[in-house]
Amino acid sequence: xxxxxxxxxxxxxxxxxxxxxxxxxxxxxxxxxxxxxxxxxxxxxxxxxxxxxxxxxxxxxxxxxxxxxxxxxxxxxxxxxxxxxxxxxxxxxxxxxxxxxxxxxxxxxxxxxxxxxxxxxxxxxxxxxxxxxxxxxx
Amino acid sequence: xxxxxxxxxxxxxxxxxxxxxxxxxxxxxxxxxxxxxxxxxxxxxxxxxxxxxxxxxxxxxxxxxxxxxxxxxxxxxxxxxxxxxxxxxxxxxxxxxxxxxxxxxxxxxxxxxxxxxxxxxxxxxxxxxxxxxxxxxxxxxxxxxxxxxxxxxxxxxxxxxxxxxxxxxxxxxxxxxxxxxxxxxxxxxxxxxxxxxxxxxxxxxxxxxxxxxxxxxxxxxxxxxxxxxxxxxxxxxxxxxxxxxxxxxxxxxxxxxxxxxxxxxxxx
Lengths: 138, 268
Hints:
The complex is a heterodimer. Helices cover 46% and strands 0% of the residues of chain A. Chain A is mainly alpha-helical. In chain A, helix 5 (71-84) runs antiparallel to helix 6. Chain A starts with 26 loop residues before the first helix and ends with a helix. Chain B is an alpha+beta fold. Chain B has a single domain (36-225), classed as Glutamine Phosphoribosylpyrophosphate, subunit 1, domain 1. Chain B has five helices and 13 strands. In chain B, strand 8 and strand 9 (141-147) form a beta hairpin. Chain B is extended and about 85 Å long. At the A-B interface, helix 3 and helix 7 of A face helix 1 and helix 2 of B. Chain A: InterPro entries: Ump1.
């Protein structure tokens, strides 16, 4: 399988209705569920927060393009893409150290570092399925 | 990937709140610091002041809470609004400012802290209920900012925030002068906070002051105990021997040892 076709990120478990024992919805592990919550935002800031990093990056790249020319964001995005591929197998915790250093996240602390630390999450993805997705076999 | 996890936290709380209110239970009221906080710039630095009462609805939750938070050795921040929000926001900004200062190898500036705070509060559109008075002395002199929950800031020589802000501002507007001495500035802030304490139900207890000058920070907690709890003047305890003893009988209980076990402690 050629390396360039490996997927950069694998979706984590949690998309779609969570089924526990006896085929019933597992409220303890995945919380209350309703179709409305999956379609409409359940908090005013949900959409804004979901796209916050993306929008910040877009804004920064476009400013950089206007100031320094097209080569600057192009080179940076190339480096990001390369750094994003340095990771362990998808179901294991990778540190993303190179990517964080490039993005400047190693010099700031925010709510993602304090709350809901993925390293302490109680659920893990299915190893086989995640690796198959990453290799593009799924 | 961190974004999806962050959203999960957000949504679960919002969904939980909706479900619980549907069942008829009330979400407990967030503990607010209905407060008086203020700051004033004087000749060589600035003075920050705060009261020490934290309320939970109509009840005083904490009679002596600390509202002047540390941001960096030369910058301190008073917080009004939801107590948890001010606490966590100032701690996060303090950490970020420390990392920034290590990266630039310079003392942090008040304008940096101000910008970090306003960008974060604007990002959350006022849902973080933190109204702050930020003050510090850096290489450009003393600076004082007031920061509102939605992210707007004002740079002024004297500011007040909180439910008692109008009472404190009345004192400031009457007696503020440019280039005061340190003692005058401390007295002015103490009087402004006292006005808030005695005229506003949300503020009370003691007055904390923080005097910041170039190279020196005096954290005076408490500076003035305006509301001391009263001391009981009478003692209702009976003296030994007040009740006369009529008869006395001693019954000896014979206990026999049934079982004896020895547990050795590992004291190595």
